[in-house]
Structure formats: C-alpha cells, structure tokens
Amino acid sequence: MRGKVDDGDVVTVAPCDMATLKLGDIVLVHARGRDYLHLIKARDGSRFLIGNNRGGTNGWVGANAIHGKAIRVERP
Predict the structure, then answer these.
(1) What is the pLDDT of residue 51?
(2) Percentage helix, strand, coil for the chain under 3-state DSSP, each rounded to 5
(3) What are the mean pLDDT values of the chain's consecutive 10-residue runs (76 residues total)?
(4) CATH number of the CATH domain containing 42
(5) I need a surface site. Which of 18, 42, 55, 58 has the fewest CB within 10 A?
(6) Quick count: other Cβ atoms within 10 Å of Cβ 48?
(7) Is residue 39 part of a domain?
C-alpha cells in the first residue's frame, strides 16, 4: 500500500491560509531545525497535531511552524 507521499515523489507546496487547513492536509512543517511533510491529524485553535501516514503522531506545532500546503504530488 502506498502512502499519500512516498520517497522519490515530487511535491509542489504553496503558501496557505491557516483558516483553510483541515484534517488530512499534507503540510510543510519546520520543527527542530528541519523541514518535514506531515499530515494534519487534529486542530486546536491555532495549534495543529501533525503525524505520518502510518498512524503515528509527532506532536503539536503552532501555525508559525507551517510553511505551506501540498497542492500536487507527482509519482515517477
């Protein structure tokens, strides 16, 4: 079974409005000095619970840590 984004996929990320983000969106997150693509698992005001596509969660981040939303995923 494939994930929403797999190694080698080309992902186009665009700036986003925090008000439009919803559960299941793929976002570019800056955490602990690195950038990651993660899913939004939950929302609590301006905080977002991010996690992977395999059911894991990675923790809460503020809206300032989200730098964009995936708008296209291209598989080779």
Answers:
(1) 94
(2) 10, 55, 35
(3) 82 94 96 93 95 90 96 94
(4) 2.30.30.140
(5) 55
(6) 25
(7) yes
Query: Does 20 fall in a domain?
Result: yes
Residues 67, 76: Cα–Cα separation, whole Å = 25
Looking at residue 48, its pLDDT comes to 97
Residue 66 one-letter amino acid? I
Cα–Cα distance, 67 to 75 (Å, whole number)? 22
At position 32, the amino acid (one-letter code) is: R
Radius of gyration of the chain (CA): 12
Question: 63 is in which domain, residue-wise?
Answer: 12-71
Spatial distance between the Cα atoms of 38 and 26, rounded to a whole number of angstroms? 6
What's the predicted TM-score (pTM) here?
Answer: 0.90
Structural domain count of the chain: 1
35 occurs within a structural domain: yes
